[in-house]
Design a protein that fits this description.
The complex is a heterodimer of chains A (90) and B (982). With 90 residues, chain A is mainly beta. Chain A is 10% helix and 37% strand. Chain A has a single domain, classed as 2-Layer Sandwich (Folate-binding fold). In chain B, strands 8, 9, 10, 11, 12, 13 and 26 form a seven-stranded mixed sheet that branches. The chains are: A mainly beta (90), B alpha+beta (982).
Chain lengths: 90, 982
């Protein structure tokens, strides 16, 4: 039972979330080459230890979060909103 | 005391005023409230309660706890029959019915005992050696396996559904104390006095732990329990903490009742989130391996003390107690006080003074149990300084008790990945260090003295309080230490040149010989030895035998125990019922039931319902009570194609996509263009996954410049929504778009058929329905039954058709109005069966073709892909392999002979080569009323281009066998779409 500190909802059980994959992957532009897309879609690291990953608070506020999790201990060191805002909303 | 009872006249924590009657193997006995099933059997002098797993040797009660290896019974009958119940943990109740296991005709007279005589052929690994590589191969092995499985085994579960109720509950607390013995109670007291919210869980049905095994135990337990009660501690009795999980979440199973009591739950699973955990799980006494150490009448010394003091039972008159440590002395004293004749063997040459009236033989060990089915005597030996044993004499006895030292229960820290550490000094595994908020105290931490256990409990609680920022007195935590008369490390008694049958794991019949055999054959690692011998793999999971097994392996390899290692304990601590894990998520509650806003309306109109994913949808609407699904759907599709039909399509996914960049967003999602879609128009779109495979399809409507309503398939509604959120929040944060699921907010009704416009004209106001004003793929607003509706001229059936969308709360009056206009025209209601049949006739793809493997081209949708823009999946869809002419592509299928039916799921084989997976498969079929024969859709290598007009074999070996079919275009009806445009 991993507890994820959702920045909007507080500490919530992982059963409210769905895993969204490696958050360090940068998806290429839609018109980028098949090779760039191949690298992004198929080539993934499987690290032992610290991992930056997406979790979707699907049973909560529906935010996509960037979570730092230790793959060995399941320790969560941070969770923040993936979207950093529009900048000009003020 | 009657001749047939070994119950003492006084003492014990049992209610003698009440008698409970119960049965064992058909015979009736009596016990008292407070008895365990094991104590009640012992009180009635039932000596043989089980049979060994492999050798079918008779077994008696061996302990008084969770580690029991002998009294493993089946409790209950019929659907409530539960196998492998530890009689020591089962509270007695009136009417309890229990049965011995693994024996025929009964545990008292079991024919399987012949296995014991031939036992030298049944050693470790005998399955593998005997039956692998035999002539006949796997087939023969499977035959032998059946026979072996019958001969060896545990009890059998009921094959009926479990009628008991279970539930899951959640709670949190500051401190969870596991175990309510002296240490646990002291910890709970200290934590509660510090003002913390404390939960204490005890697996036993009486609180007190080791207090209960002492002569004055009842009194002391009652005092301690009253104290924690007055402090507001939540006490959970018969509650096993079966596992510790990530984040120190604890899994608990509470046994609420054993009896049939209506709706009362039998067990409750608790998911507890404590801030601190105090483990006070105590220690389990180890046996010593010696000859025939499994004879009924031989039990653990601590277990015997529990039977004497807690249950007031004296299981024998003449007893020998064999010990390697001080704890045997207390048992000897208590047993002597009950009037038995007691001889105490101490393997050590120095020990405490002899208890009054007890003869202590120092430097003596048990060698071999005597007697065939029950213990009649014990051969004893003298242990020399060099460790050699020489047989000295036999002592006649009907009871023997053994203590080979203690093993702290380190399972829960092991669940958290903390390896136990072997202590040479203490002769046991101690829990390892953990960084988590877990504290171990009492005997679980290697303390044997009661006062020290209490102190360590209080110290652990005070530390926990301070860790939580609460003031608590500093209590010094006692450390495990060697006493003046330490435990002697003695695991096995052997005689030079003699073979003894000495059990390490009585539940799986693993002997010391098996462990040496495993070593001899190269299974040196503890994990390999465990799997080869099956040591510790029975229901007690090595609580009794693991340490002896590891020590013997260490002795065989010459390495110290600390280097030999230990196996990893994993949850559950002891077996738990699957029912308790499932809780209430069974039968119709196994998963959620989603009902459309028209659910009640559909049922009122005689719909037969079917589940599609989580949704309940109308399957068909029989017009007579006997109309079959086939008759009904054929009628419904005929009426719809010739006249008009209504269908509840509310389960389609509906997502509002809004904002200045909504058009651009849709352009990136769909393979076809949406940016230039006119307001008031809908367009069919297909979206791919990143890897270029087709993901989902549906129509999307432009309601205004910045407002789109996207529809998805019923199956992918949630997945598409999550994807849209992912794209907007992680990939394209610059897009100013907001998405919201409105699937439940809108009801949808399809009005399909040539007379659909007539139906709508009869009921709709504020909307011009003429073909010119409202062409195909148009979106309009209107009013039906005074309710605002959206009308979309889209068609899944291929007929002239509309879909009416209305707020969920307004669905029924709109459905009433539509039906009111449909019925007089001779129209009908149609369900998913007719809906699916009509889409097959049109060659529309659905879930069975969008199977996560097909590309746009495979589905004949290649022309939809825009060359003017980029979209999700475009780059990888261009990969060469996805354009191979040999790929499976969508085709239509018809039988070659009249009246022959098709079967979805059948493989398509070339006529000449009927083997393997074939050339493709049939994905969907229906009877076409209009064409007068069966039709199907399928995927076949090379598609229409290669196969048009050719025949293939539909191979369906489990149903109809082979049928010849012809491959045709998937568009069976109206290929130009004139009907829906008209």
């Amino acid at each position: 039972m991993i507890i994820i500190p959702c920045p909007f909802c507080g500490d919530r059980d992982h059963s409210e979330f769905s895993y969204g994959g490696d958050a360090t992957v940068k998806y290429p532009a839609l018109d980028a080459s098949a090779e760039d897309w191949y690298n992004a879609v198929y080539l993934r690291k499987n690290p032992r230890g610290a991992h930056t990953e997406y979790w979707h608070h699907v049973g909560g506020c529906r935010s996509w979060l960037v979570v730092e999790r230790d793959t060995l201990t399941h320790e969560i060191s941070s969770a923040k909103y993936a979207h950093d805002g529009y900048g000009d909303s003020a | 005391m009657s001749a047939s009872s070994s119950r003492l006249n006084a003492g014990g924590i049992i209610n003698r005023n009440e008698t409970l009657s119960f049965k064992f193997d058909g015979k009736s006995y009596a016990g008292h409230p407070g008895d365990s099933l094991a104590s009640a059997l012992l009180a009635n002098n039932v000596k043989i309660v089980g049979r060994g797993f492999k050798y079918h040797r008779p077994r008696g009660v061996m302990s008084a706890g969770q580690e029991e290896g002998g009294a493993i019974l089946t409790v209950g009958t019929g659907a409530r029959r539960e196998p492998n119940v530890k009689a020591t943990m089962q509270p007695l109740y009136g009417g309890l019915e229990s049965f011995g296991q693994n024996a025929w005709p009964s545990v008292a007279r079991d024919f399987g005992r012949v296995n014991d005589i031939g036992s030298r052929f049944l050693g470790a690994g005998f399955y593998y050696k005997t039956f692998f590589g035999i002539r006949g191969g796997t087939k023969d092995w499977m035959l032998f396996e059946k026979i072996i499985r019958k001969a060896a085994g545990m009890g059998t579960a009921s094959r009926e559904p479990d009628p008991a109720h279970y539930e899951t509950a959640h709670t949190s607390c500051d401190v969870l104390v596991v175990g309510a013995g002296p240490a646990g109670i002291a910890a709970a007291t200290q934590a509660a006095e510090a003002g913390l919210d404390v939960v204490i869980a005890e697996q036993d049905f009486t609180l007190g732990g080791d207090y209960l095994s002492q002569p004055d135990g009842a009194h002391r337990a009652v005092e301690a329990v009253a104290k924690i009660g007055s402090l507001g501690v939540s006490v959970m009795l018969r509650t096993q903490v079966f596992g510790l999980y990530d984040g120190c979440v604890a899994g608990l199973i509470e046994s609420v009742t054993d009896q049939e009591t209506g709706m009362q739950v039998r067990q409750r699973m608790w998911i507890v989130r404590p801030r601190q955990i105090i483990i006070a799980t105590g220690a389990i006494e180890r046996p010593i391996a010696f000859g025939n150490n499994d004879r009924p009448g031989i039990m653990g010394s601590a277990g015997l003390r529990t039977y004497l003091n807690r249950y007031a039972i004296k299981p024998g008159q003449e007893a020998v107690i064999a010990t390697t440590n001080d704890s045997g002395y207390a048992t000897a004293a208590d047993l002597k006080a009950s009037g038995a004749q007691v001889t105490l063997l101490d393997a050590r040459t120095h020990g405490p003074d002899a208890p009054e009236g007890v003869e202590v033989l120092r430097g003596r060990v048990p060698v071999k149990g005597e007697g065939w089915s029950e213990l009649q005597g014990l051969q004893i030996g003298k242990l020399s300084e060099s460790g050699e044993v020489s047989v000295e004499k036999s002592i006649g006895c009907d009871l023997a008790a053994v203590s080979g030292g203690w093993s702290p229960v380190v399972n829960l820290t092991s669940h958290r990945g903390v390896k136990p550490v072997w202590s040479e000094e203490m002769d046991c595994f101690l829990p390892g260090e953990t960084k988590e908020p877990i504290k171990v105290c009492g005997s679980a931490a290697g303390l044997w003295d009661e006062e020290e256990c209490r102190l360590s409990g209080a110290a652990a609680a005070a530390e926990a309080a301070r860790d939580l920022g609460v003031n608590a007195p500093v209590v010094e935590r006692p450390e495990p230490r060697r006493t003046n008369t330490p435990t002697m490390a003695l695991y096995e008694v052997t005689l030079p040149g003699k073979k003894l049958k000495s059990f390490v794991d009585p539940q799986h019949d693993v002997t010391t010989g098996d462990i040496r055999l495993a070593h001899q054959e190269g299974f040196v690692s503890v994990e390999h030895m465990k799997r080869y011998t099956t040591l510790g793999m029975a229901t007690d999971q090595g609580k009794v035998g693991n340490v002896i097994g590891i020590a013997l392996m260490a002795a065989a390899t010459g390495a110290p125990v600390s280097k030999t290692g230990t196996t990893t304990f994993r949850p559950p601590y002891s077996p738990i019922s699957i029912g308790a894990i499932a809780g209430r998520s069974v039968k119709q509650h196994f998963r959620p039931n989603r009902l459309t806003p028209l659910d009640a309306w559909n049922k009122k109109h005689n719909a037969v319902m079917t589940q599609a994913g989580l949704w309940w949808r109308p399957w068909y609407y029989p017009i007579t009570p006997t109309e079959s699904v086939d008759d009904a759907y054929e009628r419904e599709m005929k009426v719809t194609r010739e006249c008009v039909g209504l269908c509840d399509v509310s389960s389609l996914g509906k997502i509002m996509v809004q904002g200045p960049d909504a058009g651009e967003f849709l352009n990136r999602l769909y393979v076809n263009g949406f940016g230039k879609l006119a307001v008031g128009k809908a367009r069919y779109g297909v979206m791919l996954r990143d890897d270029g495979v087709v993901y989902d399809d549906g129509t999307t409507w432009r309601l205004s410049e910045n407002d789109f309503l996207m529809t998805t398939t019923t199956a992918n509604a949630a997945g598409v929504m999550a994807k849209l959120e992912e794209y907007l929040q992680t990939r394209w944060p610059e897009l100013k778009v907001s998405v919201a699921s409105v699937s439940d907010q809108w009801a949808g009704i399809a009005v399909a058929g040539p007379k659909s416009r007539d139906v709508l004209e009869a009921v709709t106001t504020e909307c011009d329905l003429s073909n010119e004003a409202f062409p195909f793929m148009g979106i309009r607003e209107g009013v039906i039954a005074d309710k605002k509706v959206y009308l979309a001229r889209i068609s899944f059936s291929g007929e002239r058709a509309y879909e009416v969308y209305v707020r969920s709360g307004d669905a029924e009056p709109v459905a009433d109005a539509l039906w009111g206009a449909t019925k007089p025209l001779g129209g009908c209601l149609y369900g998913t069966e007719a809906l699916g049949a009509m889409r097959v006739e049109k060659g529309h793809v659905a879930g069975s073709e969008l199977d996560g493997r097909t590309t746009l081209e495979d589905l004949g949708l290649g022309k939809m892909a825009s060359s003017k823009k980029a979209y999700i999946g475009k780059a990888l869809a261009a990969r060469e392999g996805l354009h191979d002419a040999d790929r499976k592509q969508l085709v239509g299928i018809i039988p070659t002979g009249d009246g022959k039916r098709l079967r979805a799921g059948a493989l398509l084989m070339a006529d000449t080569e009927q083997r393997g997976h074939g050339e493709g498969e049939i994905t969907a079929v229906t009877y076409s009323v209009e064409l007068g024969h069966w039709i199907g859709l399928g995927l076949i290598r090379g598609g229409v281009e290669r196969w048009d007009g050719k025949t293939a074999i539909s191979a369906d070996p489990v149903r109809d066998g082979n049928t010849e079919v012809r491959i045709v275009s998937p568009h069976f009806l109206d290929p130009k779409g004139e009907r829906m445009h008209g």
